[in-house]
Specification:
- It is a single chain.
- By secondary structure, this protein is α+β, with helices and mostly antiparallel strands.
- It has 6 helices and 15 strands.
- Strands 5, 6, 7, 8, 9, 12, 13, 14 and 15 form a 9-stranded mixed β-sheet that branches.
- Helix 1 packs across helix 2.
- The longest helix is centred in the middle third of the chain and has 12 residues.
- The N and C termini lie far apart (46 Å).
Length: 302
């Protein structure tokens, strides 16, 4: 729906105005739409505190309320590793980890509940078993906790930075050095709320290390190891040094590459994860081969 700001409403907060004009929806639900980029002012996402101006066009895409609990769905899964405490899944690009704004089915959680039944409840009813996440259009290995004790143990390993996470990323341009380290804090972009940024002094500490695996004419394939798990971390860090991930238009990648077919996703893949088995302490490494669509696209570069 599109709403037009009348002169008498000028100066109101965006969320207050929407609550006034859409009384059938709660303020918290309206704020959730704003947070997830479902409310645009003059074509761009805006903050709840934005003070509207007379004549502003506000575009609202109402999202249905989230279900009270996740439901099982018969969705195929590729299991890379499984024991009594942990499951490692090879997540395809396009699959969301759990329900969110505008997404209520087809998630990894829905598939896990159908395949394994009971999972850890430590993450809440909407996120059973989920200890960490991948962006929707990033593929690769995801760890899932099968019980609460395993969930707590894995969460402690993640927070203590004892889990190794290695990604494969194709980026634009040619990096001058064969290896490098990016250590910049990451924060929510104050202007574009659907983005993160590494260009502010404030934010949560984050570091990423990269190694060049292969060079192409205009692109570079990297292995990236991250010691922290911030939202969009690899995408933000690589963009901040002028080398956005292929396909990631949110962080500056071009929509088209001359001579290459559309990719339809990011060229970012969670390749390897190394952790300690929660019950035995045994070190376990799980590897996800590069997604087939990325492999085929890369062959086209040759």
């Amino acid at each position: 729906m599109i709403l037009r700001v009348e002169p008498q409403d000028a100066g109101r907060r965006l969320d207050h105005l929407l609550q006034r004009r859409l009384p059938e929806f709660s303020r918290s639900r309206i704020q959730d739409w704003i947070k997830h980029g479902l409310v645009l002012v003059k074509g761009s996402p805006a903050r709840s505190a934005y003070l509207v101006r007379a004549g502003d066009a506000i575009q609202v895409e109402p999202a249905a309320p989230l279900p009270l609990a996740a439901c099982p769905e018969a969705i195929p899964l590729v299991v890379l590793y499984e024991d009594r405490d942990v499951v490692a899944i090879d997540k395809p690009a396009g699959m969301a980890i759990h329900a969110g704004a505008g997404i209520h089915s087809g998630t990894l959680v829905n598939a896990l509940l159908h395949r394994f039944g009971e999972l850890s409840g430590a993450g809440g009813e909407l996120r059973p078993g989920i200890v960490h996440r991948l962006d929707r259009f990033t593929s690769g290995v995801v760890l899932v906790a099968r019980n609460d004790a395993a969930h707590r143990n894995l969460a402690a390993q993640f927070s203590g930075r004892r889990i190794e996470k290695v990604y494969l990323a194709m980026v634009h341009g040619s990096l001058q050095q064969e290896t490098g380290r990016i250590e910049r804090p990451i924060a929510r972009d104050p202007v574009h709320r659907t983005r993160m940024t590494a260009r502010l002094a404030a934010g949560r500490a984050a570091w990423s290390e990269y190694r060049v695996l292969r060079r192409f004419e205009r692109l570079t394939l990297l292995e990236v190891r991250i010691g922290t798990g911030r939202t969009h971390q690899i995408r933000v860090h690589l963009s901040s040094i002028g080398h956005p991930v292929v396909g990631d238009t949110l962080y500056g990648a071009p929509a088209k590459i001359e001579g290459c077919p559309p990719l339809g996703r990011y060229f970012l893949h969670a390749h390897r994860i190394r952790f300690h088995q929660p019950s035995t302490g045994e070190e376990i490494a799980v590897v996800s081969p590069l997604a087939s669509e990325l492999e085929e696209w890369m062959k086209g570069l040759e």
